Structures are given as C-alpha cells and as structure tokens.
C-alpha cells in the first residue's frame, strides 16, 4: 500500500494499537519513510555533533580550570606559605643577633627559593588579568630579599638600623605580597568552582537532553514503521538504537562523573589544600609574633596576648579544616605543645628575664619553643632512605599536611581527566546511528513497497 | 471477558502517563546530579594602601603655668634623698622602697639610638650613655648596676608608659628625652643631664647646607610625638613636609632609600646615624636646644629628689665625664661639660 487512506485497524494487540497510531499520520507510506529516515538521521547526527562539541568544550574548560585555576591557586598558596616560613626564619635574627646559625640561614634561603619557584609557576599559568599581581609579587619578593639582606649586613656590623630594615621587609610581606597572593589564590579557586558549575551546567544537560531526544525520535520512527508495516524493527534500526543508547550513556556518564569530581575538587579538596596551607602560614605567623614579642625586649606583653589569641584562632580553624583528619589532629597536638613552650618564653620575658626568654625562643635551653615549633612546622627529621638528606615531611606536621593535601588534589584532577570524553566518540556514534537508522528505515520501506 | 475499548484506552493512557513520569523523573535525576552548583567564593580585595601608624597621639596636656624658661628646673635633693643615696635605705612607703622590694629597676630605653641606647647585636646587651645613666641609678638603689629590667619603648610612647594608670609601666625613661612643657604637664623630669641641639642630616651629595634650604618640596623625617617634629612644624613657611615615623631608625631607612630628603632631630642621635652610614652628614647650626632629662612617673616627689641626688653625684664624681668620653666624645668630636643642674624647692 502506498496511500494513507487505509482505514485504521480495529484496536486489539499492541501491534494493532501501534498500527492504528501509525495510520493517523496522513502522509503516504513512501513519503513517510523518507521523511522518517531524514528526521531520525538529522536528529541522531545533530545530537552526536552537539555532544562532541560539549565534550570538546568541557575538555577545554577542565584544562583551563587545572591550569589557570588549580595551578594558579596552588602556586600562589605555595608562595604565601614559603614567604611566611622565610619571614619567620628572618625574624629570628632579631633575637639571635648577627650570629645567625648556618642551618637557619640555609632554611631561609630554601624557603625563599621555593617562594620564587612558586611565583614562576604562577607566572606560567597566569592570565592577562593576573599578570599585574604576579609582576608586583615578583618585584616585591626581590625587594623583600634585599631588605632582609640589608638588615643582615647592618646587624653584622652592629648597626641598629638593621632591625628597622627587617621591620620594613616584614611590612612589605604582610601588607602587600601576602594579600596579593591571597587574591590570586581566590581567583584560582573561583575558576575551579566556575568550571565545575559549567561542566555540569546547562550546556552539559543540553547535550544529554539532545541525545535523549534523538533516541526518542528514533524509537518513535521505529514505532511508526512497525505500525505501517506490521513488522518489528529492522536490524539496522536496532543497531542504530544501540549506538544512540551507547552515545547517551557515554556522554551522560562522562559529564556526570566530571561534574561530580570537579565539584569535589572545588568544594572539598581545594579547601583541604588551602586549609593545610593556611595552617602552615598561621603557624609561621605565630612564630613571628613570638619572636617579635621577645625582640620587644621587655615590652612584648601585648604581643604575647596577640600570640595567645592567634593560637586559639588557629586551633579553632583546624577543628573546622577540611582534609586528612588524622594529620590535622596530629598537627593540632604539636601546635598545642608549641603554644605551651611559648608560655614558658612569655613567663621568663614578662618576669623580667628577656635574655632567658630569647634563649628559650631559640631552644638554647631545654623545653625551648624553637624545637616545638620545628616539630609542628616540618615534623621530626627522618632519613629512612639513608641518602644523607632529611626525607620529605609527612602528614602530621604543617608542611607534611600541605604535601598530603596537594597529592589528594592532584589525584582528584587525575580522576577528572580519566573521565574525559573524546569528542570524536559521541560524534562517531551519532553519525553511525544516523546512517544505520536511515538505511534501516529506507530498507524497510523498499521491502514494504 | 476482554476489557472494553474505553478501558483499554484508559489503561493505555495510564501507561503513557507512567512512562512520561519515569522519563521526567530520570531527566530530573540526571539534571540534579549534573547541575548541582558549587558556591563560587567571593573575590578578595588584595593589598590596602598603608599609612604610617605613628602611635597614639598624646592627649592635650594643660601647659598653662609652665614657663619654658624654667621647665628644666627640677626638685632639689633634700637631706633625706642625699642620705638615701649614701645609705641605700629608704623610708617605708616611698617609691624607692617599692622599687627595692621589687628587686629591679624597670627602665624604658630605645633599641636603636647608637651610643645612647641600643642593643649590641653580638652580646644582645643594651649599651650607651643613657643606659649607663640608668645603671648609675640602679647602682645607687641596689648596690649593683645590673639590677635592671630593660623595656624597649617606641619614641612616640615615652610619656605614656610613665603616665599609665593606675601604675606606671616603667620606673624611669632614659632615652634622649627632651624636657618640655607638654611632657612636664603629664610626667616629672630629673634635672638636665645632657644638652643636645636639633640639626639636619642629609646625604653627602645633597645641596642642602642647613634647615633653611629645606622648602615645601622637601620631605624631612622625624619621630612622631617628638619635640623634633614639633620644631619642624614651627618653622616659618615655606617649611618642608614633616614625615612622622615610629622610631628614629625608620628615618635612617627612609633616608638611605631616598624616600625622604633629610632627617631632623637631635645632633646626638644624628651622629649615631652618621656612624652607621658614612655617606650622610650633619649640616647647619642647631636650631633648637634639647635638654635631656630622666623621665619619671608623676606625683612621686621623693623619687624625683632621689634621682636628682644620684645625678648630682654622677656629675660631681667625674663619672659623667668618663661616660661622655667612653660613649660620645668620638661621635661628637668635642669636649663637653655636664649641664648645670637647675633646681626648684
């Protein structure tokens, strides 16, 4: 039959009902089959292309989030952490005088070098909008190092102006460099959060909906053809359906997985990493306050009060911190020990014995605060691989927690990358489904004729 | 019995509705899973412009009745004070007895005024002319000069620590402390133990030869709440812009960095700066007299008389000259005599 004038069959079996439905379309059968072939092919091919475009766009978004978001945030956080560490070490010269220990000097140099390297990494991933801050931080770091060196040179010569240079260096770090680093870190966090929202957002949903709609169109076409021909679907149509379902499953799974992992990275992992770094910086800040209190030589009472307040804040923030709970708990205990050691320093200082306070702060006497600080900052010095150098800090110290959270964050982004959809796959599946659907419909039409 | 066409139609309609619900639910689930939004954190502002915090401004003191010509007059040591210096025994309830009971003299000093009061970076001990004056007072009180608790005080807070309520934070301030009416209204002073003059410190390549060469386009550094900055403000127009800082050493940093054109303060302090940087020089004549006294807490006249008795002994015994030769002669390159003590009863 080639006309659309056949009376509807009486309702009975499912196939009867389908046939009844199929004949409601008033197009002649041949024309209907050509139209259905076109509609199905266009729908499947278009949805495949759309899904491929979304996959490509998401891949770019994720790559940008990793570079300009994650790497910017981690690089600037590293910069801040190392600058704070360098500042704490430089501040110790205020009470150690010109005779700075070689270990302290080497640790300062290492922290400054790492801050500089972190800044280089930030510069490599910075956008045009970020460059002014990165540039200011680079010149500021040079200025900071210069001021510290001028301070050292003057102090070695016995000139009191050395301490004024150190004050100026610390003002530069605290009032300019660290706020800029924090601003860039926040920009990086925002980019990761926006990427997470974008990947799983309206465009991602649109790709899934288009694939779903194409699948519905294909099924609808198959139903109409079955109704007109009273025969079940052609094998090519079944193959097209399988390809369309595969494309839908692949794209939906990819988008949902990437979105979920990115959300975890943006809302939890990056917070854990930043919390670990803020704990490290906060600990360095406590050390600077302690040293400044001792260096105030008798008038440090307000600084000891500031120390106590800041220590309480840091411990409270640790209670709320994201990340590895056992590492955080271990660090908390070590910070409490450090705070107790500083209480001994304060007792000596406020009791009128500033010299003993200085010796305690430098751990030149038992139960001094420098050892307790080092244990909290980097943990015990261990050389398990016997290579003559201390092993990398492990979780439980401020530096160790930073490394652990950095590893977790990297692993999360590796998971995001693993869920990446190659754009060619949904396109190929869509086009394949389109060809199969068109050929199946037309083949059924030829037989029916 | 087969269901009627209407019943079948109703069943079909229910099936389609159920299918639509399932599809809708699945779509919502997918959308909810994929679309859950992450909070984007707020931006941070970055660095804020910083101002020099020159410390708390001293409250306006009532200086009516203060004659600048006699402000350096201090209470004359009475017989009790002289006897106390000789015997080291103090009347119960006197401030000296209180200090002696405490076991140490609390002395407000500076950490960065070379040759007057600074910390030796190698020994970490305070040293200088002012520190030696404090040690003489401790020696008189305790029989040993090291019975001292040093408290580093920013220049801008020297009066505040002595005028603190209910008790002063230190017993004495010996810190190139100029006696003037504003300060005398809030605290007490000993007799003058050193006379300085305010001068100008510039780079050796500067064209300026005196304070008169500093005009409105020049920036001159001085410590906040100091007589030096007051004297700069009192210069006739076009006077230079005064740049206040917390401590003297901050001025030296600014001058070395080229951020100010000059420093103006006591020649003794400027000489300490020249000792730290031979590319600087003191120019011009002094444009004010700066009489240094030991700052003392208010309303303790017996302590003022006692400190004046100690200073009298330092002058008359030749100790003053010894200390001058040890700490200041090389720096100032001139002989000096101790200032004559001026008393009131």
User: What's the total helix number of chain A?
Assistant: 14
Helical segment count of chain B: 12
* Poorly predicted runs of 5 or more residues of chain B: 51-58
The portion of residues assigned to helices of chain A is over 70%
Keywords summarizing the entry:
heterodimer; A: 14 helices; 82% helix; 0% strand; elongated; disordered N terminus; B: 345 residues; six-stranded mixed β-sheet; three-stranded parallel β-sheet
What is the topology?
The complex is a heterodimer of chains A (449) and B (345).
Chain A: H1 14-22, H2 29-91, H3 93-96, H4 102-125, H5 128-156, H6 161-199, H7 202-229, H8 235-295, H9 301-320, H10 325-350, H11 354-361, H12 369-378, H13 398-418, H14 424-448
Chain B: H1 5-35, E1 74-75, H2 79-87, H3 95-102, E2 105-109, E3 112-113, E4 117-119, E5 126-127, H4 129-142, E6 148-152, H5 158-163, E7 172-173, H6 181-184, E8 188-203, E9 219-223, H7 227-233, E10 241-245, H8 248-256, E11 262-266, H9 267-276, E12 280-283, E13 289-296, H10 301-316, H11 319-327, H12 329-332, E14 343-344
Parallel strand pairs in B: 1-14, 2-6, 2-7, 9-10, 9-11
Antiparallel strand pairs in B: 3-4, 4-5, 8-11, 8-12, 8-13
Outline the structure in words.
- The complex is a heterodimer of chains A (449) and B (345).
- Chain A has 449 residues and is mostly helical.
- Chain A contains 14 helices and no strands.
- The radius of gyration of chain A is 34 Å and the shape is elongated.
- Chain A starts with 13 loop residues before the first helix and ends with a helix.
- The model of chain A is unreliable at 1-9 (pLDDT under 50).
- By secondary structure, chain B is an alpha/beta fold.
- Helix content of chain B is 37%, strand content 19%.
- Chain B has 12 helices and 14 strands.
- In chain B, the strands form 4 sheets. In chain B, strands 8, 9, 10, 11, 12 and 13 form a 6-stranded mixed beta sheet that branches. A 3-stranded parallel beta sheet of chain B has the order 6-2-7. Chain B has a 3-stranded antiparallel beta sheet with strand order 3-4-5.
- In chain B, helix 2 crosses helix 10 and helix 4 crosses helix 10 (301-316).
- The interface between A and B is large, with 61 and 54 residues.
């Amino acid at each position: 039959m080639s006309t659309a004038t056949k009376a509807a069959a009486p309702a009975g079996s499912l196939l009867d009902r389908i046939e009844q439905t199929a004949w409601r379309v008033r197009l002649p059968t041949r024309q209907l089959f050509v139209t259905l072939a076109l509609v199905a092919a266009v729908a499947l091919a278009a949805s495949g292309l759309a899904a491929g475009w979304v996959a490509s766009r998401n891949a770019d978004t994720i790559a940008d989030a990793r570079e300009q978001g994650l790497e910017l945030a981690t690089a600037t956080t590293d910069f801040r952490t190392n600058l704070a560490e360098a500042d704490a070490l430089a501040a110790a010269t205020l009470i150690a005088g010109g005779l700075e220990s070689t270990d302290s000097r080497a640790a300062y140099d290492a922290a400054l070098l790492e801050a500089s390297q972190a800044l280089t990494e930030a510069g490599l991933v910075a956008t045009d909008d970020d460059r002014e801050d990165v540039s200011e931080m680079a010149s500021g770091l040079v200025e900071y190092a210069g001021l510290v060196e001028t301070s050292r040179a003057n102090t070695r010569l016995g000139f009191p102006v050395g301490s004024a240079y150190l004050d100026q260096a610390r003002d530069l770090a605290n009032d300019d460099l660290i706020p800029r680093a924090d601003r860039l870190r926040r920009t990086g966090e925002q980019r990761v959060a926006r990427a997470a929202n974008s990947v799983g957002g309206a465009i991602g949903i649109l790709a899934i909906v288009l694939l779903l709609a194409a699948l519905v169109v294909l099924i609808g076409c198959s139903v109409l053809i079955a109704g007109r021909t009273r025969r079940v679907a052609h094998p090519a149509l079944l193959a097209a359906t399988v390809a369309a379902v595969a494309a839908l499953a692949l794209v939906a799974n990819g988008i949902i997985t990437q979105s979920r992992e990115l959300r975890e990275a943006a809302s939890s992992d990056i917070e854990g990493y930043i919390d670990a770094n803020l704990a490290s910086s906060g600990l360095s800040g406590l050390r600077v306050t302690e040293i400044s209190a001792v260096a105030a030589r008798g008038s440090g009472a307000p600084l000891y009060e500031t120390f106590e307040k800041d220590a309480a804040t840091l411990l409270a923030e640790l209670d709320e911190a994201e990340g590895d709970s056992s590492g955080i708990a271990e660090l908390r205990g070590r910070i409490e020990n450090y705070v107790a050691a500083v209480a001994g320093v304060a007792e000596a200082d406020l009791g009128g014995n500033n010299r003993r306070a200085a010796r305690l702060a430098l751990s030149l006497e038992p139960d001094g605060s420098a050892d307790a600080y080092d244990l909290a900052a980097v943990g015990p010095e261990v050389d398990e691989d016997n290579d003559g150098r201390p092993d990398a800090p492990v979780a439980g110290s401020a530096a160790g927690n930073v490394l652990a959270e950095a590893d977790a964050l990297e692993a999360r982004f590796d998971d995001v990358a693993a869920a990446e959809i190659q754009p060619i796959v949904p396109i190929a599946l869509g086009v394949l489904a389109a060809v199969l659907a068109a050929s199946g419909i037309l083949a059924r039409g030829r037989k029916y004729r | 019995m087969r269901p009627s066409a209407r019943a079948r139609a109703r069943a079909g309609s229910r099936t389609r509705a159920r299918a639509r619900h399932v599809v809708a639910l699945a779509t919502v689930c997918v959308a909810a899973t994929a679309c859950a939004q992450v909070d984007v954190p707020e931006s941070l502002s970055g660095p804020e412009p910083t101002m020099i915090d020159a410390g708390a401004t001293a409250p306006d003191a009532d200086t009516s009745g203060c004659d600048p010509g006699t402000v350096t007059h201090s209470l004359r040591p009475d017989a009790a004070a002289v006897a106390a210096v000789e015997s080291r025994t103090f009347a119960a309830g006197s401030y000296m007895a209180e200090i002696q009971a405490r076991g140490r003299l609390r002395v407000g000093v500076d950490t960065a005024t070379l040759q007057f009061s600074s910390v030796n970076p190698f020994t970490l001990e305070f040293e200088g002319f002012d520190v030696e004056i404090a040690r003489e007072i401790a020696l008189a009180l305790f029989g040993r000069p090291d019975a001292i608790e040093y408290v580093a005080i920013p220049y801008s807070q020297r009066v505040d620590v002595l005028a603190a309520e209910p008790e002063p934070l230190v017993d004495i301030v010996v810190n190139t402390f100029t006696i003037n009416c504003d300060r005398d209204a809030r605290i007490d002073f000993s007799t003058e133990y050193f006379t300085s003059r305010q001068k100008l410190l510039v780079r050796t390549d500067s064209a300026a030869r005196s304070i008169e060469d500093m005009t409105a386009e020049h920036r001159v550094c001085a410590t906040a709440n100091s007589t030096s900055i007051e004297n700069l403000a009192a210069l006739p127009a076009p006077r230079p812009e005064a740049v206040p800082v917390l401590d003297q050493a901050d001025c030296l940093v600014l001058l070395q960095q080229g951020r100010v054109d000059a420093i103006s303060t006591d020649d003794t302090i400027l000489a300490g700066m020249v000792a730290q940087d031979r590319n600087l020089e003191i120019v011009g004549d002094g444009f004010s007299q700066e009489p240094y006294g030991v700052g003392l807490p208010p309303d303790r006249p017996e302590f003022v008389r006692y400190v004046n008795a100690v200073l009298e002994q330092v002058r008359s015994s030749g100790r003053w000259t010894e200390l001058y030769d040890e700490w200041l002669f090389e720096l100032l390159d001139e002989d000096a005599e101790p200032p004559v003590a001026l008393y009131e009863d």
